[in-house]
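Design request, tokens follow.
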């Protein structure tokens, strides 16, 4: 088994697991459906190819929140192309200045294909919506002979430098991980983002189980504080004692 890790960072991201009419929300972290869609687009997969999608959907998925970002709301106006009539006012939510490490676990051959596709994608990747391009190449590492949990813990902290300096007093940082639950693992939540079909006529998603954990990773921006420096050996009254003697 291997694990492919991705760095998902950009000015805006939007990872919706549900949408109602003109209101488009975003989850607080990338969804499996969104990341699988990115990988499928990189390979040039047709939206109606449910068999190819099923192969990708079997990958075990997890995400680490390195920089949570800020949720923002945007209103957009639109008019009908033929009549010019005003359309319903859309309300869209985004995550600004967020950084995530997403990971998929599966067979070596498939993940090597996906890694190669990300280096030379057929379609450009985007962070949930086409209006959200990544700030950096999304491919990060391909880990052979390791598991999803270990790969998410092994990756260095990917937060922006300005964000890391806010935690420079901490030698390590605790980061939230959202991953697919193991069989019969307690404390799992349900999220409807398991892709079944990307076809425009019948998009379908199923429920999957998600557990929330944390990992400790080193802080590359940590600085030595006075508490960690050795205390010099000095007695301020030694000179007084010698004088009186």
């Amino acid at each position: 088994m291997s694990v492919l890790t991705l760095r998902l960072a950009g000015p805006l991201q939007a990872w919706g697991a549900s949408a109602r009419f003109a209101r488009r929300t975003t989850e607080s972290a990338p969804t499996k459906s969104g990341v699988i869609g990115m990988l499928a687009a990189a390979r040039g997969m047709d939206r109606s190819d449910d068999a190819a999608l099923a192969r990708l959907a079997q990958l075990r998925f997890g995400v680490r929140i390195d920089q949570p970002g800020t949720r923002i709301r945007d209103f957009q106006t639109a008019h009908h192309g033929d009549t010019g009539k005003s359309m319903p006012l859309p309300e869209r939510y985004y995550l600004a200045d967020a950084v995530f490490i997403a990971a998929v676990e599966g067979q070596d051959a498939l993940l090597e294909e996906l890694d190669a596709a990300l280096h030379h994608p057929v379609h450009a990747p985007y962070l949930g919506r086409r209006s959200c391009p990544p700030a950096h190449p999304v491919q990060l590492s391909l880990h052979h002979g390791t598991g999803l949990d270990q790969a998410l813990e092994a990756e260095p902290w990917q937060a922006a430098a300005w964000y890391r300096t806010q935690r420079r007093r901490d030698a390590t940082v605790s980061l939230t991980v959202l991953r697919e639950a193991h069989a019969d693992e307690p404390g799992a939540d349900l999220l409807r983002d398991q892709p079944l079909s990307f076809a425009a006529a019948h998009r379908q998603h199923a429920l999957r189980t998600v557990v929330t954990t944390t990992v400790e990773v080193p802080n590359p921006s940590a600085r030595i504080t006075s508490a960690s420096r050795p205390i010099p050996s000095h007695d301020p009254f030694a000179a007084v004692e010698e004088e009186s003697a």
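Comment from the thread starter after seeing the answer: thanks! DSSP finds six helices and ten strands in the chain.
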